[in-house]
Specification:
Elements lengths: L9 H16 L4 E2 L9 E7 L11 E8 L2 E9 L7 H25 L9 E4 L2 H8 L11 H12 L4 E4 L16 H8 L4 E2 L5
Parallel strand pairs: 2-5, 5-6
Antiparallel strand pairs: 1-7, 2-3, 3-4
Helix pairs in contact: 2-3, 2-4
């Protein structure tokens, strides 16, 4: 809502009130961390395509798990307009890759070394194909920097990109409007627990 601070309308005011009602209704929900010997890094990335009705920019998001624990997440509007769903998903994939690299460097500083490369889960077949396909497609020339960044990590074996169905994509709740049913479905997967204030 901060992007409308200079000229808010009644619709923006109503949206802020809805956000505040949501926060009031969820103050007893918290994030649970479990002890685990697993140090596998899993990144779920997702994007909507042209989801903002004002400027048609996409929202990209990711959720990063260290073992069973959610350790990092993000949801933000992408800085440029995507010309395809694959481009929007690939930009989200590049952001998830950057976060994975940063988390690996933090773990290395803590003397925690991963035995396997991070696994990045994406629900767009085109975006996953771009990661491993050495042929550069003319349709994706405008995302060249992100392409080389992710492609290099995959080629070095520092990242494993895999397809996941949209129904199982945990980052979906960070990029699209979520109903109560969807939030309830994903809350256990995201390690959200109720009544943390009790």
């Amino acid at each position: 809502m901060c992007q409308y601070l200079s000229q808010p309308t009644t619709a923006h005011y109503e949206a802020v009130k809805r956000i505040l009602r949501y926060i009031r209704g969820t103050v007893s929900i918290g994030l649970r961390f479990r002890r685990s010997s697993s140090t596998g890094l899993s990144i779920f990335t997702d994007a909507d395509w042209a989801g903002c009705p004002d400027d048609r920019r996409s929202t990209g998001g990711f959720a990063v798990f260290l073992g069973p624990n959610l350790v990092s997440w993000s949801s933000r509007k992408q800085p440029t307009v995507s010309r395809s769903n694959t481009e929007a998903e690939y930009k989200a994939l590049a952001n998830g890759t950057a976060e994975a690299i940063w988390i690996q460097s933090v773990l290395k500083d803590l003397s925690v070394f991963l035995s396997q490369p991070p696994v990045l889960w994406c629900d767009n077949i085109g975006a996953t194909y771009l990661c491993v396909n050495p042929v550069f497609h003319a349709r994706t020339k405008h995302i060249e920097v992100d392409f080389h960044f992710v492609r290099e990590k995959v080629a070095l074996g520092a990242l494993d990109v895999r397809f996941i169905s949209t129904g199982d994509q945990l980052a979906d709740v960070f990029t699209k409007p979520a109903t109560q049913l969807i939030l309830n479905r994903f809350s256990s997967n995201l390690n959200l627990v109720h009544d943390v204030l009790d």
